[in-house]
C-alpha cells in the first residue's frame, strides 16, 4: 500500500471517528424524514446531496489542502521531500488519504440520496448527478492541493492561504451557475451536439483530470523532480480548446482570440503567483551559457511557456481578423488585428518589469511594487491622459489604443526600454559574499 | 585509495543578494565520520541541503554513490538519511507508526519493515516507547526518533545537521555511541555541529567551511595514526615524579623519540612505532630509574584544530588585503 495513503488513513480514522459520522448523518436524515410532510424522498435526496457537498467538497477539500500545509507547519516537509516516493505516489497518497474521511461520509450520504432520488422519479438523473458530485469533489481537492503546493514554494507567505480559500469557495459557487448557463437540452461544442448533463459531467471529468495533473506537476516540483515546462502551456492550450469550442461562428478567429486571452491570463497569473528570485534566473543563465539547453528548460518558471504560446495565437488572430469578412462574435472586431501582436509585446514588457522588481537586492515586496506599477501603467496613466485630452501621449502610454502598425511600433519601444532596464538591474545585482 | 561515496565538484549556491557556497569541491570516503564545522553563515546547512537534493545550486555537481543527486533525487534518497536542524515529528503517530512510515516511504521492502522498526527502536532506546505518540516524547526521545527515521532504511550516507542540539550530556553521549555503531557498520556520516567537543567523540575527518569556501578538509590525527600503524608517529604525554627538565636529556638520547613541549613534571613526545615501542619506553624508564607516573596518547582536539585553521585563513586574507 502507498505509504503516504496508509499514514493519512492512520491519522484520519479511529474507532470513534468511524462510529460518530454515521450516527450524526443518520440523525440528520431522520430529522429530514420526520419534518417532511408528504413525500420524504425528494427532501432526503436533496439533504443527501447537500451533505455530500459539505463533506466531500468542503471537508475533503480542506483536508486535501491541509495535507500539504500541515507538513510545513509541523516541520515534517523536509522528511517528505527526502523520501524515495515518486511524485505521483505522493500526490495520490495525500489526496486520497487526507480526504478519505470526507469520502467516507460522502459515500454514506449517497447511500441515502441515490435510492431517495430513485423513488422521487429522478431515476435517469440520479447516477449522473452522483458522478458529477464525485468528479467535482476530485476536482476541488486536487485544485486545492495544487494551489497549496504552489504556496509551499513561496515559504513564509502562508497568509495567502486564506485568500486562496476564499477564491476556491467563490469558484465552487460560481461553477454551478456557470454550467447552468448552458441553456437548452443540448450543447453545441465544436459543431457537435451533446446532452447538457452529459456535457457537464464530461467537462467536470476534464477539469478533474487537469487539476490532478496540476497537483502532480506541482508535487514533482517541490520534490525536486524537475520536469520540462510543458504543463502550464499545456493547461492553457486545453482551456483554450475547451472555451473556443463554444463559438457559434468563425472558429479560427475565436480560437486565436481565446487562446491569446487565456495565455495572457495564465502568464500574468504565473507571474504574480510564482516567486522570481534572481538565483533561479542565474541558474537558467548558467546552464544556457554552458549550452545545457535541457537543463536550462528544467529551471524555467511557468510564465515563459504561456508567453511564447501567446505568440502563435496572436498571429492567428491577426491573420484571421485581417481578412475583410472576418469578425469576432463580439463588438471590438477588425481593429484588433495588429493589436494582438502588440499585446504579446506588452506582456513581454510587463514580465521584464516584474523581473526588474524581483532582482532588486533590497526590495522587500517586489510583487506589490509590480502590481502598483501595473495599475499605474494599465489604468491610472491612460485614464489621466485620456481625461486631460492628450490623445498622443495616451497612445504612447498605452500602445494598444494607438491602432494598427503604430501599436506594434510603440509596444516594441516599450519592450526595448524594459529589457534595457532589466539588463541594468541584472548587472547591478550580482550577489556578494555574506 | 578508496573511491568516494560523496563527490562534490565546483558547487556554487546563491541566495538572493549573497553567495552561500563558492566553488566548493570535496570528496568523502565511505565509512568515515566527517565533522562539518564553521562559523554561523559558513554554508554548512546549505551544503548539507544541496547534498540531500533539497536545494538546487547555481552550478556544480554532486554525486552520491555514483548517482547525480539533481538528476536522480529520489534514487539518491534511498541511499541517504537526513536529519534537519529544524526537524519535526508526526505528533499523532506512535513511535512504531512513525518508524514504519519512514521505512516504507524510503522504499524498504514490506517484509523487512517490522524487523527494521523493532531493531531501530531498540538501538535508539525507544523499544519500550513503540506505542507512545510522538507528541508525548521528551526532547531527547524525539531527537532519537528523528534519527531513527533517518537511519531505518540502513542508508549508505547519513547527513546530520546539529543532531545533538538541546540534548543533555548523557543523551549526547548515547548519541555519540549510536554514531560510532553506525560507522562500524560501514555507514558514512557527515555531521554539522557547533558543539565541537561532541564531534571529537566520533569524528574521523574535519571539513571546515568559512564564507562558503572549504578552509580545510583532512583526516584527524588519530585516524592517520591508525591507518599508518607502526609507521606513524604517536603523540604521547608523559608525567614523572621528578621535574621533566631532568628527564629530558635521557629521553632525547633514546631512539625513535622526538621531544615536544615541556612544563613542570610533564612533557610531550612524538614516538615512532606502535604499542610495542610504547611498552619498550616504559620498561626503559623503569630500568633507568625514572619515576614515570603517566603515559597517555594526545588526541587531536577538534576545537583547537578548527580555531587554528580559522586563524590561518583570516591571517592569509588579512595579508592578501594588506598587499592589495
Throw out a few tags for this protein.
heterodimer, A: 434 residues, mainly alpha, 2 domains, two-stranded antiparallel ribbon, 3 strands, 2% strand, globular, B: 324 residues, alpha/beta, Rossmann fold, Alpha-Beta Plaits, six-stranded mixed sheet, 38% helix
How does this model look, in words?
The complex is a heterodimer of chains A (about 425) and B (about 325). Chain A is mostly helical. Chain A is about 75% helix and about 0% strand. Chain A is built from 18 helices and 3 strands. Chain A has a two-stranded antiparallel ribbon. In chain A, helix 1 (about 5-10) packs parallel to helix 5. The longest helix of chain A has about 35 residues, at about 40-75. The two termini of chain A are about 45 Å apart. The model of chain A is unreliable at about 330-335 (pLDDT under 50). With about 325 residues, chain B is of the alpha/beta class. Chain B is built from 11 helices and 14 strands. Chain B has helices spanning about 45-50, 75-80, 95-105, 115-125, 140-150, 170-185, 195-200, 220-230, 245-255, 275-290, 300-324; strands spanning about 5-15, 20-30, 35, 60-65, 65-70, 80-85, 155-160, 190, 205-210, 215-220, 235-240, 255-265, 265-270, 290-295. Chain B has a 6-stranded mixed β-sheet with strand order 6-7-8-3-9-10, sandwiched between helices. In chain B, helix 6 links the parallel strand 7 and strand 8 (about 190). The model of chain B has no long low-confidence stretch (mean pLDDT about 85). The interface between A and B is large, with 37 and 45 residues. Strand 3 (about 430-434) of chain A pairs parallel with strand 2 of chain B.
Amino acid at each position: 500500500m502507498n505509504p503516504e495513503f496508509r499514514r493519512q488513513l492512520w491519522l484520519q480514522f479511529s474507532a470513534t471517528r468511524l462510529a460518530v459520522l454515521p450516527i450524526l448523518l443518520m440523525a440528520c436524515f431522520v430529522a429530514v424524514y420526520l419534518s417532511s410532510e408528504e413525500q420524504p424522498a425528494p427532501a432526503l435526496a436533496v439533504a443527501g446531496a447537500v451533505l455530500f457537498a459539505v463533506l466531500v467538497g468542503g471537508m475533503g477539500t480542506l483536508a486535501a489542502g491541509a495535507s500539504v500545509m500541515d507538513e510545513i507547519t509541523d516541520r515534517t516537509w523536509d522528511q517528505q521531500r527526502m523520501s524515495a516516493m515518486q511524485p505521483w505516489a505522493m500526490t495520490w497518497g495525500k489526496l486520497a488519504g487526507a480526504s478519505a474521511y470526507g469520502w467516507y461520509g460522502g459515500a454514506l450520504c449517497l447511500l441515502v440520496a441515490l435510492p431517495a432520488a430513485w423513488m422521487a422519479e429522478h431515476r435517469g438523473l440520479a447516477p449522473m448527478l452522483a458522478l458529477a458530485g464525485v468528479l467535482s469533489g476530485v476536482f476541488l481537492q486536487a485544485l486545492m492541493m495544487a494551489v497549496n503546493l504552489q504556496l509551499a514554494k513561496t515559504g513564509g507567505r502562508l497568509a495567502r492561504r486564506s485568500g486562496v480559500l476564499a477564491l476556491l469557495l467563490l469558484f465552487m459557487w460560481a461553477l454551478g451557475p456557470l454550467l447552468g448557463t448552458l441553456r437548452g437540452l443540448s450543447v453545441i461544442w465544436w459543431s457537435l451536439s451533446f446532452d447538457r448533463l452529459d456535457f457537464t459531467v464530461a467537462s467536470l471529468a476534464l477539469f478533474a483530470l487537469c487539476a490532478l495533473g496540476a497537483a502532480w506537476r506541482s508535487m514533482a516540483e517541490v520534490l525536486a523532480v524537475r520536469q520540462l515546462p510543458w504543463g502550464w502551456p499545456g493547461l492553457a492550450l486545453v482551456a483554450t480548446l475547451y472555451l473556443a469550442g463554444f463559438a457559434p461562428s468563425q472558429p479560427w478567429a475565436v480560437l486565436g482570440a481565446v487562446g491569446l486571452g487565456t495565455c495572457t491570463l495564465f502568464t500574468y497569473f504565473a507571474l504574480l503567483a510564482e516567486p522570481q528570485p534572481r538565483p533561479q534566473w542565474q541558474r537558467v543563465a548558467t546552464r544556457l551559457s554552458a549550452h545545457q539547453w535541457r537543463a536550462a528548460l528544467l529551471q524555467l518558471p511557468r510564465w515563459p511557456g504561456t508567453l511564447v504560446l501567446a505568440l502563435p495565437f496572436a498571429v492567428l488572430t491577426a491573420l484571421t481578423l485581417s481578412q475583410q469578412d472576418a469578425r469576432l462574435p463580439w463588438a471590438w472586431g477588425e481593429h484588433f488585428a495588429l493589436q494582438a501582436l502588440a499585446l504579446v509585446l506588452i506582456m513581454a514588457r510587463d514580465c521584464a518589469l516584474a523581473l526588474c522588481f524581483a532582482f532588486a537586492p533590497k526590495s522587500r515586496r517586489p510583487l506589490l511594487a509590480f502590481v502598483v506599477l501595473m495599475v499605474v501603467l494599465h489604468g491610472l496613466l491612460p485614464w489621466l491622459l485620456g481625461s486631460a485630452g492628450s490623445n498622443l501621449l495616451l497612445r504612447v502610454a498605452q500602445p494598444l489604443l494607438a491602432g494598427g502598425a503604430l501599436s506594434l511600433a510603440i509596444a516594441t519601444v516599450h519592450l526595448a526600454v524594459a529589457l534595457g532596464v532589466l539588463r541594468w538591474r541584472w548587472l547591478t545585482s550580482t550577489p556578494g559574499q555574506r | 585509495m578508496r573511491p568516494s561515496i560523496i563527490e562534490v565538484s565546483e558547487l556554487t549556491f546563491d541566495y538572493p543578494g549573497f553567495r552561500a557556497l563558492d566553488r566548493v569541491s570535496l570528496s568523502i570516503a565511505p565509512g568515515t565520520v566527517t565533522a562539518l564545522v564553521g562559523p554561523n553563515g559558513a554554508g554548512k546547512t546549505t551544503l548539507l541541503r544541496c547534498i540531500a537534493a533539497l536545494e538546487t545550486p547555481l552550478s556544480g555537481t554532486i554525486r552520491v554513490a555514483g548517482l547525480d543527486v539533481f538528476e536522480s533525487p529520489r534514487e539518491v534518497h534511498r541511499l541517504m538519511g537526513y536529519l534537519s536542524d529544524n526537524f519535526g515529528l508526526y505528533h499523532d503517530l506512535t513511535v512504531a507508526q512513525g518508524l514504519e512510515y519512514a521505512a516504507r516511504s524510503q522504499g524498504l521492502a514490506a517484509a523487512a519493515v517490522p524487523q527494521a522498526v523493532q531493531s531501530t527502536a531498540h538501538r535508539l532506546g525507544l523499544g519500550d516507547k513503540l506505542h507512545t505518540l510522538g507528541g508525548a516524547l521528551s526532547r531527547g526521545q524525539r531527537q532519537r526518533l528523528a534519527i531513527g527515521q533517518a537511519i531505518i532504511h540502513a542508508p549508505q550516507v547519513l547527513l546530520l545537521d546539529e543532531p545533538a542540539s538541546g540534548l543533555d550530556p548523557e543523551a549526547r553521549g548515547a548519541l555519540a555511541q549510536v554514531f560510532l555503531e553506525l560507522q562500524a557498520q560501514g555507514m558514512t556520516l557527515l555531521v554539522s555541529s557547533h558543539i565541537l567537543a561532541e564531534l571529537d567523540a566520533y569524528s574521523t575527518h574535519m571539513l571546515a567551511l568559512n564564507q562558503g569556501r572549504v578552509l580545510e578538509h583532512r583526516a584527524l590525527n588519530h585516524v592517520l595514526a591508525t591507518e599508518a600503524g607502526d609507521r606513524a608517529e604517536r603523540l604521547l604525554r608523559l608525567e614523572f615524579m621528578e621535574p621533566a627538565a631532568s628527564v629530558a636529556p635521557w629521553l632525547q638520547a633514546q631512539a625513535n623519540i622526538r621531544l615536544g613541549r615541556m612544563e613542570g613534571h610533564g612533557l610531550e613526545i612524538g614516538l615512532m612505532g606502535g604499542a610495542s615501542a610504547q611498552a619498550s619506553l616504559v620498561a626503559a624508564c623503569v630500568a633507568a630509574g625514572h619515576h614515570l607516573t603517566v603515559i597517555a596518547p594526545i588526541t587531536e582536539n577538534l576545537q583547537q584544530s578548527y580555531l587554528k585553521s580559522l586563524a590561518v585563513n583570516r591571517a592569509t586574507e588579512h595579508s592578501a588585503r594588506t598587499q592589495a
